[in-house]
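Help needed: design a sequence for this.
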């Protein structure tokens, strides 16, 4: 049974960079956000429940109407919560099945809202990636070609780092300094915990 580690962080925190470094070290990583995008397109139960919640417009020619869904999620916190309740249990089951098939003693689950959805409670260890607000804004503006106001609006829909820090087991400060040293400390801690749980 693999030791399951969650990796999360707000928009622009640079958690993808951390995951890339971990993959280079040979660790398998399950990308929940990518997986949920696939499942929304293909999973019959998710499709059925989204249509029941949002109406037929959510799929056009059997394809997810991303613009329509994004507008619904952005404008209504209640709908966003309901959509998460439809998708995330399926993503969790998919991750559990994936983890069973890995040969590595440690596996990672990357997800943007790992803490908000309570998924972190199903894992052995949680890593939170944080960065100064101005660094995060700059990263997202460059990556997505959006304005500072648009990034701030997205950030305001997520929990702040201050809300998440007490619920994480390990914090990585991804502001460009001493990243390898922090990763070495993290892996040392995870390895010792993984050995204890054997």
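Sure. Designed sequence:
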């Amino acid at each position: 049974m693999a030791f399951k580690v969650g990796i999360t962080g707000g928009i622009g925190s640079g958690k993808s960079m951390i995951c890339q470094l971990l993959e280079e070290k040979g660790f398998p990583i399950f990308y929940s956000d990518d997986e949920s995008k696939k499942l929304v397109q293909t999973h019959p139960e998710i499709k059925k429940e989204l249509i029941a919640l949002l109406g037929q417009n959510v799929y056009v020619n059997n394809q997810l109407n991303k613009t329509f869904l994004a507008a619904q999620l952005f404008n209504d916190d209640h709908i966003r919560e309901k959509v998460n309740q439809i998708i995330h249990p399926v993503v969790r089951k998919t991750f559990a099945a994936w983890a069973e098939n890995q040969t590595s003693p440690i596996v990672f689950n990357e997800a943007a809202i790992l803490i908000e959805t309570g998924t972190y409670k199903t894992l052995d260890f949680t890593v939170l990636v944080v960065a100064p607000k101005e660094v995060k804004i700059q990263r997202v503006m460059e990556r997505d070609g959006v304005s500072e106001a648009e990034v701030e609006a997205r950030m305001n829909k997520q929990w702040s780092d201050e809300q998440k820090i007490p619920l994480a087991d390990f914090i990585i400060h991804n502001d460009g300094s001493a990243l390898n040293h922090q990763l070495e400390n993290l892996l040392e801690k995870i390895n010792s915990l993984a050995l204890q749980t054997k």
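Residues 1-28+105-198 form a domain with the Rossmann fold fold (CATH 3.40.50.300).
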